Amino acid sequence: MSLSRYSRPTDANLCRAVVDSVVDVVIMVHDMANEARVIYANEAACQHFGVDLETLLTWTPARWDPCHDPDLAISMALADGRPRSYETEHLVALGDKIPVEVTLNRLDLPGCNYLLSSIRDLRPRQLREPCADWLERRALEMCLERSDKTIYDNLLDSLFLFDVDADGELIVAGYNRRAEGLIGLREAESIGRRKQDVLPSVTLMGAESPERACVANAAPVCFRDTLGLPDGRRQVENTLIPLFDAEDRVQRVIYIVHDITQRLRRESQEVVRTEVFDLLSAGADLREVLARVVVFAEISRPDLLSAILLPDAERICLESCIAPSLPEVFVQAVEGGAISESADVFGRSAYLKMPETVANLLDHYLDSACHVLALASGLVSCWVTPILDSSDELLGIFAFFRDRAGQPDAQDQATMDQACQMARLVMERRRTEAHIRYQANYDALTGLPNRTLLNVRLADRLRKSKQLALLYIDIDNFKEINDTLGHHQGDQMLELVARRLRFLVSEEDLVARMSGDEFIAVLSNVTHAESTAEALRTALAGDYEIGHSNVWASVSIGIALYPEQARDMDELLSYADQALFAAKAAGRNCLRIFDEAMREKIQLRVRLASDLRTALKAEQLSVHYQPIIDMVSGRVIKAEALLRWEHPELGQVSPEVFIPIAEETGAIHEIGNWVFREAARVAMQWNHQAWTGDCVLRRISVNRSPRQFFTREGCDDWLAHLHNQGIPGEALGVEITEGLLLDDRPDVMRQLTAFRSAGIAISLDDFGTGYSALSYLKKFDIDYLKIDRSFVQDIVSMEGSRAIVESIASMAVRLGMQVIAEGVEEPAQAEVLAAIGCRLAQGYLYARPMPEQAFMAFAAAEIETPTLR
What whole-number percentage of the chain has pLDDT above 90? Predict the structure, then answer.
């Protein structure tokens, strides 16, 4: 019995009633010759857009779909006559956007260029309006006129018409073309057969089935079902609409079947895809993440089973197999398989980096992984695809299996490509994360654990160990080696030292690179810590072949013990560092164990760092001035401003002790600025007092810490103070050390230039004791070289010291600089200095550093001093 039999000229069109009764699907017909304007729409379309039919018939798709492309719509619908589907968003009532699936189909009507659009709301069913009552109202018992069969056949869903027999069974009366494609039977072959024969449900059967409920209750029914069809199972959403006879008995049922298999599959794929990347982000084990990738592939193609095989680090064999759906015997058989051209399909694909196909697994040699799998599972064919990274390096292989012979079709290939891509992303990201973790925890140069990983591992060992010894190791004079040979050779030396350390320290002990040329060794054997440290010192001292040179180097080592000396990690590191400092002070190339004296020194340092923060406000700091004498005239022409600290409990604290603390804590910036302002004020008073009309200003020099050069303000604060106070720069000087000039930093050069442009003289302090390099004397404009007191002390007794001072003085004259001899304490020293042409001197022979008032009085008095007169 065909649907077309139900035709009475006096009745309306059954097709239109059916179309209007479909609430889940918006159905419209468009005139492509008139900008795709709507010429027909069902009631669901009006509800979908929230307008009446009259309004909707004036619209074109651009009204509800901002992304609508008329040319694309035409090409999709008319390319080969087959339906085309895509997902987009529609603007509906109140300006809301909802996700929809649109299917376009050409209508074969003579002389017309019409397009049928079927639109399905992709939101969950519970978000849509209840529809049963509306369906019942729209379901009219009408007949189909053959002239409208085109629209009926091109519906998005499968549409069945069933007669209801005397027993309440549904008997096929007809169905549309989409239904033929679903069940694989032509309409004529099925008319008169029972519903269960052509549309078999595998989940809903018996007296309580929805079909019987629809007939018994004379009411529409909506439900989900699983159909067992010749090409596999399909997940569907069904809508049943009863049709009544003249006595209001259910005579027929319209059965609308919407295939949701692909949608559910996409939803399951998306769930698994999210799980994959959630696991990856959470740092889950790689095998666990890849197991979900395998599940993703198997969801995409339910008739396929999959496996991912991973190579070992050397890519010699396949060491790991992830196959949650395959027998364990296969996993055992394939793991350890060789990667070579002569290997089985898996190893050969990995070796050649090419896809491989096996038509029949049983054709493989006996006991092979393929043969084992075929016997254990009944699988027949296999396709293997290598997983390659962006550099074409092998990451693994993806294998797909099926229980029947044949080559992969287009959908199989698309699934394989998508699964391989996901696996590649997972493995590359995990490799990148591992590389990032390595960079965060290991030293890139030496491969040793860095400070971060050292802290983690040391803390763990302190929790688990009863005692430990920490060795703080430093390469002696490494900066000189680095500066002399270059950074590349310096890096080579660090690598060689690290290599020796790894070789010398046992596996249960810990070796790390702290920073620069500093290394840490953590020993579990405290009893032999000192002898082990001495053995390390001896082994690390010696020649190192760097490039084409042999460089001799030694190390100094500081040792601290836990828990005998230190209670926690911070103390252990700090105490070992103090012991290292003591080893350096003892002449280098030796070791020292932390002791009580060092502890007291640390405690004092901590106390001074705390007290120094309030010392300035508490007026404990003062500036003393030490005169610099012109040995020819005997007059005081310069002075150096020196900081003093009178601690309320400790008395006078040496600048050699508290200045480094001020630099480390950052207090040097506030204190240094205050010293400069004091020196500037005193310099103006001194020049007013000593003015002789010779237009020569007396200078007071202020020591400027390297830390003060590396602030955001730079020299601006000092220059601004002089400008605001009206103090000429010629009344001031700045003293710097040689170390500041070694790095040749542009910001240092800029500040020194700014000082000299303002008239402030630049003095180079302690010249000859540091990394003296004549090259920077050419780069930087220096006014004074201050010869270190160590040369002056021996100038009378040692010819070498005298020669050095004489050379410095001669060089300074040639470079247009003046020389100041520091630490002059004896008349004999002054006489030698005068004899070699050194005119300016500073030292206890003339005056000690003194407070402001004493200095002003001293500078004003006539003094008797050794001169050249």
Answer: 41
